[in-house]
Amino acid sequence: MKTKIVKIAALVLALVMIAGVCACAATDNNPSIGSVGKVKFRLSDYMQYYQQYSSYANYITDFNGFIKNQLINYGVTLNHCYDEGITLDESEEAELSKKVQDTIDSAVSSMTLDSTDGLTDEQIAAAKLDKFIKQLKDAGYRNLDQYRKLVEEETRKDMLIDKLRELVNAEVEFGSEQVQKYYDDNVSSDEEKYKDKPSEFANAYNSYITSQAAAPLFVPDDMFTVKHCLVQFANQDKVSDEVEGEFGEDEQKKLEDIRKALNDGITLEDFIANFVSSADYNSDTIFVPKEPAEGEEPETVETNPQVGYREHGYIMNEKLLSKYYDGFGAAACLLKYGEDWTIPVEETEEATPAPDATEAPDAEPTETPEPEPAPIEKYNVVFHETTDGHKIAEVQTNVAGGGVHFIFIAEELEPGTVELDINDTESPVYKSIAKFYRQELENTHYSDLFAQWKENTKVRLNDSYIDAYAKNYLGIN
Questions:
Q1: How many Cβ atoms from other residues are within 10 Å of residue 218's Cβ?
Q2: pTM, rounded to two decimals
Q3: Mean of pLDDT values over 241-257
Q4: Which residue has the higher pLDDT, 29 or 455?
Q5: I need a labelling partner for 38 at 20 to 30 A (CA). Which of 77, 89, 126, 271 fits?
Q6: DSSP state of 252
């Protein structure tokens, strides 16, 4: 549970704050503030949630009440674990030990030293450990073992809650019938939501590819995705209407390398490998795979949602130009619709004159505005072609974060209703529905059960003490 991981990380800071603001004896600086069922709470528990959510304090009307409710919800859940007699088995106990050690190792390694000159790795590690133990003692711990015991206690609670959630989720029936039901219930409404509405579809599609929501079941016409290699200006963070973008020697060299490769002849696959996926050339690091560190798992869309853009590209349509840098979207549309494409005029309702309206006498003739230059000329778009027949559009975007882009079409989405083959459980649409609809059913089932647990659990919080502490020491009501 991410909530509790953050709480463990905030524990030392919470106790330091309590020690700093409580003018009372050391034995009383972390008093009991109540209980929820069998779960007892101290002031440090309140402070952990305060630390976790403090950045949202200005956006929550009753922030103190919000924190108390977080405590209650946590207490209800943990109390139900105790009521059900949930425990950890042998393999889970081993996992617990590893998690505790990893938490401590991470906390120690995060320590910063004033200087490491002349120190070996072993000496640096020892110095960081000494600093961490000093901070623990300043926060009221006798030694590292006492802190380890607390981390183990909190981590065990986390794991019990996770196990409870797994047991509750297992009660939900789910299979092909539920996938088909979701599809049948949503396919028509998705067509209503997205037909002729590329912007709404783009939002849904981006949520889908970044593994935040189920796949949209209808695709409007002319939806496609693009990828690119971006060579940013050397002064890209300073470019504005008053400041032009500039390329230094390094950037010029990158542009020369890319253009030479395109002129000499290169396949799209090699162009992607050599330039798009290379941090040496592409400033848009979304498209650059991250090399995992030793012992680290490769990135996935679950660990980094931007992997979805890396796999699929940026969703495009001529009605989405405003979502992109001026020039980028136009160049992408020229690839899709052809070099004669023009920017569509926004549809506006013509004003209806009053019945007796007439043209004013002696009205000055209005000047005919100069026609807008074609996009290919307006943005100085240059086209290249790979040896396997893929077009690449080169365009410069004169904005902060901009530079020269080399853009190509990655995917052209099939318009219309997305078909579901209920027997193809590995298809993207089936897997997407299965993932998110199951989560929806599990969350609903869990919420229903939690409401019952909460109704049957005695809550005894010392509201007067908590409210006074929050007001007098934290400045919240």
A1: 21
A2: 0.79
A3: 96
A4: 455
A5: 89
A6: H
CB 476 within 8 Å of CB 63:
yes
Buried b (16+ CB within 10 A) or exposed e, 221-234: ebbbbbbbbbbbbb
Looking at residue 186, its amino acid is: N
pLDDT at 225 over 50: yes
3-state helix, strand, coil in the chain (%, to 5): 55, 10, 35
In angstroms, the CA 131 to CA 242 distance is 49
17-31, 246-260, 336-350, 421-435: which range is least confident on average?
A: 17-31
In whole angstroms, how far apart are CA 255 and each of 129, 162, 261, 398? Answer: 48, 51, 10, 16
- Tokens encoding 51: 């630390």
Tens digits of residue pLDDT in 59-93: 999 999 999 999 999 999 999 999 999 999 999 99
Judge whether 346 and 321 are in contact, CB under 8 Å: no
304-307 own/partner pairs: CB under 8 Å, 24+ apart: 305/210, 305/211, 305/212, 306/210, 307/210
Q: In degrees rounded to 5, what are phi and psi of residue 224? A: -145, 165
Nearest Cα residue to 284 out of 206, 225, 229, 245 = 229
User: What is each CA distance from 359 to 18, 356, 422, in whole angstroms?
Assistant: 77, 10, 65
Check if the beta carbon of residue 406 is closer than 8 Å to that of residue 392: yes
Least confident of 65-69, 294-298, 361-365: 361-365
| Domain locations along the chain | 2-170, 224-290+301-341+372-412
